[in-house]
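User: Hi! I'm working on a homework problem where we have to compare a predicted structure to a textbook description. Could you give me the structure for the chain below?
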Amino acid sequence: MKSPHIAGLRFLQRDARHFQILFLGIFLVYGTWILRWDLEWERCLLLLTTCLVAQAFFVKWKGLPWNALKSAMITGLGLCLLLHAGHGYTLVLGALVAIGSKFLFRIKGKHIFNPANIGIVVAVLLTGDAWVSPGQWGSGPALVFLVGAAGLMVLLKVGRVDTSAVFLITFGSLDLLRTVGYLGWGMDVWAHRMMNGSLLLFTCFMITDPMTTPNAPKARVAWSILLALLTFGIGTFAFVHTAPIWALFVLCLTTPLLDLIYKGERFSWLPGSSNGKAQNASAVLRNSNTQTNH
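Assistant: Happy to help. Predicted structure tokens:
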């Protein structure tokens, strides 16, 4: 008889989305119980329900496998962690845009925008009723370890360590030059800024979406540097505390161009079914790889 621990581990390893759902759920619990967020569970329920219902509509419409709901769960949890609004209809709008964008804005089998990212941007821009609270995560060594360890496991699974590493090194270097070199503040100030929980979550779980980052490693390095430069510029000169959100929205528009210039293997959530192998796979498998990716 198999150990339940071994069975659980195999279940997680079967699909990288399982890791993402697990850790995003843990972060939601961590924020509620440890950080004492004033979290409205009705808000989370509304976001998750809307995402799942919207995804189910597209699954039924396009004849996709029902395991595509995993992607909707990831998007919903991401919105729970980031998106706040004064009214329920704003949350519904953000969730619908997030899920709908995956199916309506596509180039060569990849959706253009990060789902949670575009949902937040549209809700903020169109309603004036939505906001993101970067400071809700605080900062500190324990949070760095929690997010870093969980993020590393997911990054190793989806193969996007380069994206996070290059972004964090580039952004950290620019902020170090400004904070310590230009402003003359101490290293402790810079370290505190770099241990911000929102920045770490963004680095490990949002910009590493394999379906909205370039396929080729060289392209991902260039993309990550540009993202760091834009994030630093928006935050420093425009004084926008949510700079990473806006920078990612802009940079997602460059991914199709980078994929055209730099050829690389397209990511697949299903282990062992790369883009090249998928050509010999069944039509069902190809649909699950190209249509249900988060």
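For your comparison, note the following. Residues 4-132 form one domain. The chain has two domains: 4-132, 139-261. Good luck with the assignment!
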